[in-house]
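Lecture 7 notes: from sequence to structure.
We start with the chain below.
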Amino acid sequence: MRIGLFTDTYIPDVNGVANSTEILRKELEAHGHDVYVVATRAGIGFSEWDDRHRVLRLAGVEVKKLYGYAVTTPLHLNAMHEIKKLDLDVIHTQTEFGVGIFGRICARQMGIPIVCTYHTTYEDYTHYINLINSKAVDDLAKKAVVKFSKLFGDTALEVIVPSKKTKELLEKYNVKTELHVVPTGLELRRFSPDLHDPQRTSQIRAAAGFSNDHRMIIFVGRIAEEKAIDLIIRGLALAHEQGCTSTLLIVGGGPDEEKLHKMVKDMDLTHIVSFAGKQPQTEVPDYYRAADAFISASTSETQGMTFAEAMASGLPLFARHDEVLDELLIPGKTGWYFENEQEFADCLKQFEQLDDQQLAEISRNCCEQVKPLSSEIFYERAMKVYEAAIELYSHMNIIEDIEVKDNFVQMYISSESGEETRILLLLDEYMNEGLRTGMRISNDQVEALKQKEKEARAYQKCIRKLAAHDRSKKELHDWLKKETDYSDELISHVISLLEERGLVNDEHYAEDKITSMKRTLHGEESIVRELREKGIPEDLVREKLAERHSDEAVNASEYAGKIKRTLSGESVSMLKRKLYTKMLQRGFRNDIIEDTIAGMDFSDEASDETENLRKCAIKAKKRYERKYSSSQLRNAVFRYCSTQGYRTEEIYAILDEMEWDDD
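Predicted structure tokens for the same chain:
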């Protein structure tokens, strides 16, 4: 099999990812596979092969804060040309940034199955970008980590995680791709205590300023905040105050190295704490074997390779509890757990009280406990994942063709059996998914795209609806809910898209509706009721109305005059009563109505009132004379005229003019 390992960090870098990549490369090559590593180098120019034409280094910028690693961009046309010539069967990315993204681009462009390993719990590293130590910034960074991790997990065919802890983390992130727990293997023979060289041990201790008379504890790894080395140093100082004699050798480099050097000097601990700096990978096993125990206070590990290396070297562990150590550190058998400085000091006392025979027993326990992490087992598990990815890829669907029209993309997808599926997507969604003609996608991806098609269809329906006239968000939501079986979540998302693109805007809708209703002489309360039913917040409506409040009285007067002209033959009192009711129904406020009616001229209606009353009385008499007679008829006419707003004395005067049959 021809395999490409893509990583942002590789030997001679000293860290778990670089080590894991190198171990995997060695095992794959030992079993006859062709393996090519794509990594970074500090510098400019084109990509460069090593002498064996097995490691392709991409130019990048050295970043001191990231332990001196070289960071590169994900675009390398020259390197892509080189990789295309390798005819790879599978691409395996070890990191998620520059080279990791480049690996995904290569896989997509060249039609190669992709596997990724999620080595790093990035939530524990957000302090590197939170320069102002803000909780809000940290929360945003952690949310970005979740989205970022899910994106990279879901864009791989298979995902390898080094521990159950990491698997549970990605499951919490809702990564859909299958997760395979494959702990990074160790070349156990390379770390074996049987290779211990007493002379080399004396050299290492002498260089650190330590003798062989006292037990030495070692830390190997990055010197960085998340490793909590300051806690170890304080705990060692406390232990010495309480009678311990062990020394500490710190092997590695990183952004906190200078700070910890100063801490050790300020605490006057240079005689018991020494820094060996970064060491070549070939030298690291000797440093382990020169020590009597290993310590790390980090809880950010995804597997804890240095813990395993130390145990393979026969060293018991001092560590803070972390799920990744559950299978390695057995308290009292292979090491000790501590949580703070005093607990570490207490554990160190127990360690120093062990005689050589007891320490040798613990050393044998450590070597036995780490055996399941052999590089051979690591290889076998990784190969099964590669084979699964290649098999899955061979049965994937192919995007045969696309048609772009307006903001939509019609995709034509063929399955392995030749069955064609058509899926409509929003153009933005198509671009965001990184889809293209000729690309292979899994059945799960096809199903996911079908769900996104519902979004495109809903969007399309809304566009057609909006073509007739504007709608509020609530109107569109209610309409889609009634006309489709789409979920509230999907409908809300589609409306959010329309809003983002300026196709739906409740504020503009409110302004236009207010203008329209004002033009048709509606009062403000009527406008508020109407827009509230459309889902527009009342405070927004009133804010917009307040901007044009001066036209309310003018509209009220115009509307009252219009209504007054349609009313004739009424008493002035009834005319005012009907005007009041009509204006109230039209949405004008009481004070506006009262002021408007008070300012109207009713002199013509007043001069006609007697004649109107006479007509009203005659009309009432004709209506009631079939039912009543004499005084009963007269009383019925009186009551009717009274309800029409005429005054009592005027009614009596008209009734006296009229002829009535006596009882």
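Points to note: The domain at 608-657 is CATH 1.10.10 (Arc Repressor Mutant, subunit A). The chain has a mean pLDDT of 90.
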